[in-house]
Amino acid sequence: MSRIAYVNGAYVPHAVAGVHVEDRGYQFGDGVYEVCEVRGGHMVDERRHMERLLRSLGELRIRLPMSLAALGVVLRQTIARNRVRDGLVYLQVTRGVARRDHYFPDPATPPSLVVTARAIDPAKGEAAAEQGIGVITVPDNRWERVDIKTVGLLPNVLAKEAAKQAGAREAWFVDAGGHVTEGGSTNAWIVTPEGRLVTRPAESGILRGITRTVMFEVAAELQLRIEERPFTVAEALGAREAFVTSATNFATPVVRIDGQAIGDGRPGPVARALRANYHRLAEIAR
Ligand code: PLP
C-alpha cells in the first residue's frame, strides 16, 4: 500500500509530497510540530498534544491554518488513509511560503500544514524496553526556548547521531551547571537509591513532554513519589534506575550512561511498572 501525506489542503502520494522551496520551515526552521502515538488506530493524548501545539504556535505568533476540529479530521484521515493501527501521526505547521526574508511575511500569508502517519512495529519498542537502552551525555548547546516544539532540531540531530556513533540510542543534554536537561527526543528520569522518581521541572531547559505529564498520574496511582528537580550526571550514574519518556517510547529503561551500567545494568521495576500502566491512564479517544 502506498503512503499518503496531507500537504496544504490535499492528500498526495507520500513519494511526491513536497512544500515550496521558500517555505519558511525549509528556509529558517520557522515552524512547529507534534508527534502523537497511534494505538489501535486511535490517537493517544490528542487533547494535550493539541494544547501544546497551540502554545508553541502562540509563542511564535504563527496561526493555526484551520480550526482544531478540522485539524482533528485531517489527522484522522491521514491515519486512516495510511491504515496505521500502531505507529505515529506527525504534524507540522510553518509560517508559510514567502520570498526569503528574515522578517515575518505579510500577516495574510497562509501558514503551511503537513501531516504524515506511519506504522511502527510495537515489537521493536518492546524489545528495546526489555533490553534497556544506552545514553551518552553531551553539553546542552540549544537555545533557551526549548519549551517550544520547533522544527529547528539541529543540536538534537547532532547529539542523537553522536549517540548512535557511540553505540547508544539517546543523548542526554547537560547544562552548564552539570545537570541533565533532557534527551534529544525524550524527557530524562532517574530513580534514586531511596526509590524516589526524579525529573527536571518543566519550567526551564526542557520540553514539557506529554508522556512526562501522564507519567505523573501513573506514578501517583502506583504510589511512587516524584521529586521535580534537576539532577546531575553523577547522581544519574549512582541511581537505582534511569529511563526516558516520549510519545513513541512511553517509558523506556536506560541501562547505561556513557558506557557505565546503571543499577544492576538491567531494566528496573519502576520503569517497567510505569511503562506497563501508561496506556491505562493516557487519553485514547475512540
Ligand atoms: N523532549 C524533546 C526534546 C522531545 O523532542 C520530545 C518528543 O519529541 C520529548 C521531550 C518528549 O515529549 P512527548 O512526551 O510529548 O513526546
From TrEMBL:
<comment type="pathway">
    <text>Amino-acid biosynthesis; L-isoleucine biosynthesis; L-isoleucine from 2-oxobutanoate: step 4/4.</text>
</comment>
<keyword id="KW-0100">Branched-chain amino acid biosynthesis</keyword>
<keyword id="KW-0808">Transferase</keyword>
<dbReference type="GO" id="GO:0047810">
    <property type="term" value="F:D-alanine-2-oxoglutarate aminotransferase activity"/>
</dbReference>
<comment type="function">
    <text>Acts on leucine, isoleucine and valine.</text>
</comment>
<dbReference type="InterPro" id="IPR001544">
    <property type="entry name" value="Aminotrans_IV"/>
</dbReference>
<keyword id="KW-0032">Aminotransferase</keyword>
<dbReference type="InterPro" id="IPR036038">
    <property type="entry name" value="Aminotransferase-like"/>
</dbReference>
<keyword id="KW-0028">Amino-acid biosynthesis</keyword>
<protein>
    <recommendedName>
        <fullName>Probable branched-chain-amino-acid aminotransferase</fullName>
        <ecNumber>2.6.1.42</ecNumber>
    </recommendedName>
</protein>
<dbReference type="InterPro" id="IPR043131">
    <property type="entry name" value="BCAT-like_N"/>
</dbReference>
<comment type="similarity">
    <text>Belongs to the class-IV pyridoxal-phosphate-dependent aminotransferase family.</text>
</comment>
<dbReference type="InterPro" id="IPR043132">
    <property type="entry name" value="BCAT-like_C"/>
</dbReference>
<comment type="pathway">
    <text>Amino-acid biosynthesis; L-valine biosynthesis; L-valine from pyruvate: step 4/4.</text>
</comment>
<dbReference type="Pfam" id="PF01063">
    <property type="entry name" value="Aminotran_4"/>
</dbReference>
<dbReference type="InterPro" id="IPR050571">
    <property type="entry name" value="Class-IV_PLP-Dep_Aminotrnsfr"/>
</dbReference>
